[in-house]
Design goal:
The protein is mainly α. The protein contains 2 helices and no strands. Helix 1 (2-25) runs antiparallel to helix 2.
Amino acid sequence: MLMLRLVLMLALAAMFVLLGAYLGTRDKKYLTYLMNAIKYLGYFLAAMLVLFILSRVIR
């Protein structure tokens, strides 16, 4: 659970930095990076959910 919290905090910090970079420069590439970060965070959370469910089923 510690790793999950760490990844979530790092992803949240990265998203705020990317949003700030977009607001500061108005360059669309930062929005693209932000959407990629959200997409990959979703993949990570889905994988963690599957692993959590598997660990409950195996017990």
